[in-house]
Specification:
The protein contains ten helices and ten strands. By secondary structure, the chain is of the alpha+beta class. α8 packs parallel to α9.
């Protein structure tokens, strides 16, 4: 709702790019400058930090490869196209995480790719596609390797839940050891969210 109202009120089709992100991650762990430096050399219409691999299904809906929506950048050519506004106008409001993944995250990549727009991810652009090809969400399953090997700028909050305990421990240790982010911010968030 917010972005659609903003797009209608602003001269969005004159912007050079639009950066969209949500609050499902901690960061920057590593500076974003490296990411933008790498990605400005990519000749694509939109990009994100990570690409989710094709993987089984969610409640009967096939998970095709797609750019994960927690951090998306749309370049001028796509912004100025009518398809960009059409996508937001036709988007159904999602009430659950699963609906958001199916109706927005997967559809964003699928819709614009079908319209002829090109995309990539930071992980692919730096030649680390092997970190994506896993069963499940690479930003959760390979969070530590992403940080250590390619200086990934963020850590997904969900990665720090008990379900990913071994990965979370490595991530905590890495962040603390390298003094990359104020670890107390992470502790306070986890305590607020998961300690009763």
């Amino acid at each position: 709702d917010t972005i659609l109202q903003y797009l209608k009120d602003e001269e969005w089709n004159k912007w050079d790019e639009l950066v969209m992100f949500n609050d499902t991650f901690f960061g920057p762990i590593h500076p974003f400058e490296k990411v933008f430096s790498v990605m400005e050399k990519q000749e694509v219409d939109f990009w994100g930090l990570c690409r989710h691999p094709q993987w089984g299904d969610i409640y009967g809906y096939e998970v095709v490869t797609h750019i994960q929506s927690y951090f998306l950048v749309v370049n001028k050519g796509m912004l100025s196209g009518l398809q960009f506004l059409n996508f937001w106008e036709s988007l159904d409001y999602s009430e659950t995480l699963i609906e958001t993944i199916i109706n927005f995250e997967i559809q964003f990549t699928t819709y614009f790719a079908q319209e002829g727009y090109t995309y990539t991810s930071y992980v692919d652009a730096v030649g680390a596609s092997d970190l994506i090809e896993c069963k499940g969400n690479p930003a959760l399953k390979n969070a530590f390797k992403l940080l250590e090997e390619i200086e990934y700028p963020v850590v997904k909050k969900k990665c720090l839940q008990w379900l990913y305990f071994s990965e979370a421990k490595k991530v905590f240790d890495y962040v603390k050891e390298h003094s990359l982010y104020e670890i107390d911010i992470i502790y306070k968030n986890l305590k607020r969210k998961y300690v009763y």
